[in-house]
């Protein structure tokens, strides 16, 4: 089972590396959105510090959504998905491997860019650290939940926007606690509770999302 | 309660009647839409019968 | 008497049955709603001072809220039955329930805004109950959007059923996160300070109206499922042989 996981993970990473533009566009989208807000909202330092957490999270949400369409689409189109469904290997493991690959390519880079956000929004070193921690816990949740949406809408026209419509409501707890963690650290330095809740939510999604996604893939491929 | 009092609702007439009004509007519209949907469905079935007869 | 539960699982037998019971629900709805509202408007003049006349908004707000939540549960129940037993009609019932649920959710938000303006001064406040209602609206819309986006009926039925289930699982999490955005303290639940002191006559009014809404839901959902059956089974001989078609 672990071997299946490893194989699929490396396969997806290799395939993605051949089309670097996909990964980079999600990352650059994040950077652009982050950079646009100060220009639109005004350059007042106190305001920027206050809105930074919310904006970073919404931008992360949107960037993650962008890349979701291609999570299963490639395999669906060339018939690999069907083969994956037929193999005796548990589909949940295959799904988990693909989601991890997706996260490594689109979620993790966002975590690493946080210092840039900190720079533009005048965040303290501590806030930056908390934001990185929060995104580190939150972006996998985004990938896991997004996978369900991507699986349900396979091959459907209007895919990207439809996924957003379906999945964004489900992202709300992540947004609330992820953003709250950073806000809390800015005000009182008490972000631990939020991070713990995010962690709990991550565990919950890790357990339940691959099953739901596998089921959705089965439905979409019939 | 006089008619004037009924409509004014102690000054809150706007709020009460906007709420009641929308409720009435939504419910009547739903019924209306479903009835006209039924009519067009029946016409559609009649059309299908004609098409299949003419094969 | 042995009840054959699966007899009415076929659209061809359910369709006429539904047609027969719709009038019952229609009349019940009318009587209960009119009765409830009459009670609320004319049996409570002394209880509501002029400052509190706006409480009458509750007569429709409470019923809509209950229906918006109840119908989502009904939707998921039908979806689950469909996924487990693979019966087409179950999926059709789920599909028929969604629009009505969405309409009641919208009505809850609309009446809720007017209630909010009168009782705590603002049309919208991001309080947990109303925010969750908003998310519920998104869930209904998402369900309907997915249904219409996928052309293959079998697939769209199952996919949207799964989506509805996922939504149901996450509603408590979402509600909790909105209710307690700061884990150290949870926000006040629906700023209604004097809910428990509401006069019984007012409660009777909104209860009766709420049941009326429930009857209305039955009526409207049965009407809709009959339309869905006509649409999906238009090529069958039983539909083509219906009296109303031959006219």
How would you portray this structure in words?
The complex is a heterotrimer of chains A (222), B (55) and C (247). Chain A is mainly alpha-helical and 222 residues long. Chain A has one domain (2-221). Chain A is built from nine helices and no strands. Chain A has helices at 2-17, 20-41, 45-78, 80-86, 91-120, 125-152, 159-167, 172-187, 192-221. Chain B has one domain (3-53). The longest helix of chain B has 41 residues, at 13-53. Chain C has helices spanning 11-42, 58-85, 88-120, 128-149, 153-179, 200-232, 237-240, 243-246. The model of chain C has no long low-confidence stretch (mean pLDDT 87). Chain C has 247 residues and is an all-alpha fold. Chain C has one domain (29-39, 54-233).
Question: What percent of residues of chain C are in strands?
Answer: under 5%
Computed over alpha carbons, the radius of gyration of chain C is 21 Å
Low-pLDDT stretches of chain A are: none
Sequence stretches where pLDDT stays below 50 over 5 or more residues of chain C = none
Q: Give the termini separation of chain A.
A: 25 Å
Please describe the biggest sheet of chain A, giving its number of strands, its sense, and whether it closes into a barrel. none
**What is the domain tally of chain A?**
1
Mean pLDDT of chain C: 87
Shape verdict of chain A: elongated
What is the number of domains of chain C? 1
> Biggest interface: chains and residue counts?
B-C, 29 and 43 residues
Distance between the termini of chain C: 38 Å
* Mean pLDDT score of chain A: 88
Sheet with most strands of chain C:
none
Q: State Rg of chain A.
A: 18 Å
SSE sequence of chain A, one letter per element: HHHHHHHHH
Report the total helices of chain A.
9
| Category by helix and strand content of chain C | mainly alpha
SS-based class of chain A: mainly alpha
